[in-house]
Every structure is written in structure tokens, then in C-alpha cells.
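Input sequence (97 aa), recorded before submission:
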Amino acid sequence: MISNEYILTSVSDILGVPIKEILKQDHQKGARNMHAVKARHFCMYFSVIYGNHNTTDLGKYYGKRDHSTISNALKKFYIRLSTDKKYVLDLEMCEEQ
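Predicted structure, C-alpha cell format:
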């Protein structure tokens, strides 16, 4: 099982988004920055797929969010994945690392 910390650090390094930005809560300035949101969604996806973490654990780790917020974020992730080629390429780039 891969830790959330490892996934967060890896995605942060690859996409060039500071960890602090990825972990921001929605009410904080810059939390909805599209680069931070993409990095956060990638982290959540990798945490579910490779870390076997559930949405409740992820909610606690990624900015004290509710499990339903994580589920909704993953739903948006999959929708974006099916419609945005650049998104897929960025995900593949992260996955290769």
C-alpha cells in the first residue's frame, strides 16, 4: 500500500503544484485554482487505486473534507478523464513516475 504522503509529494513534484496549495480547504484563497484542483484530484485517484484508501480517510487527509466531497471530486475526475485529452496525458505522466 502506498502512503498518501508519498502520492502527494510525487504529484506535487511532477505537476509543479506546492503541497500547501493541494491541501488548501475550499474556503481558503486559491483552493479552487485549476492546477491545485487537478493535482488534488490526481492525488485522490492514486490514493484510491494504489493506496487502497477509502473516501473517509481521504477526506480527513485532504483538508478535512467530508467523504461525500471526495466521492464528488472523484466523479468529476472520471468525467474530465473521459473528455479531456490533456488531462489524460498529465495523469499518464504522473502514473509513469
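Checked by second reader. The chain has a mean pLDDT of 88.
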